[in-house]
Design brief:
294 residues, alpha+beta, four-stranded mixed β-sheet, 5 helices, 23% strand
Length: 294
Amino acid sequence: MLDCKLYMYMKKVSLTKIFFLVATLCCSILVQAQQVGVNTENPDSSSILDIVSNGHGILLPRLSDFERDAIVNPAEGLMVFCTSRNCLNIYNGTHWNEICGSDAPSGFQCGDTFIDPRDGQAYPTVQIGTQCWLAKNLNYSVSGAIAGTGVYSPDSVGLFYNWTTAMQGYPATNGIPGTTQGVCPPGWHLPTRDEFTTLNTIIGNNGNSLKAIGEGVAPYGQGTNTTGFTAYLTGYYYVGTFASNNSSTYLWSSTMGTTSSRAWARTLASSVADFVESDTFQPISYCVRCIRNY
């Protein structure tokens, strides 16, 4: 008799568990099949989640750029708020895009004037092969940027940045373009060494095509500006001194050099046509040209 009662009790418990599991499954299927509304009984039919509030927002995960970059295999469309840049970040499947007000005016096409949303400065842009470049040296003021006077004034040549200042805490890269915004505006980035190599291939190593008309010395180094890049021979800054104006210019990449104290740059000189790589001491301050994210 005892064994019979125990059997009936265990059977009842099992049936209860089965009923609970079935009910949970049905509930789950029902929730997944409908829109979810928060503070509304009638979520919009175009949404899977409709949140209504008159006084509250939604908080996304708040991560530094280093914490964001540590996410393993981020899904396309993943969103976080980047505390390093105070911007919404969305992963597009290959790299993180930033939304800081706006990356560019609506309908922006390379060749249009780009307005830096951070300070309102205007930059001409130019398409060279597959790449879109600012057609003017960066003139965005941050701690560590150097402003010259006379021929080195920001209005003439932009600001000078040592490599650490240009990078703004971003890790060095020669990998996926667009991952090192550095001091560049949202939607733009410091070119990698490979991107400079691509540019050099496009122009056939004819650095004169990048120089502004009137820059350089004939017969071998005279600028033609056939690309519209409009590079001036701006020189550089180091240990309190500006030097090499009208003789050369140097543009930082985001790629570490042959040692941890060096980084790759590109050089244009007055008497030669080559667009030369230079493995450069990071504390020297060079100019910055930004390339658009794609």
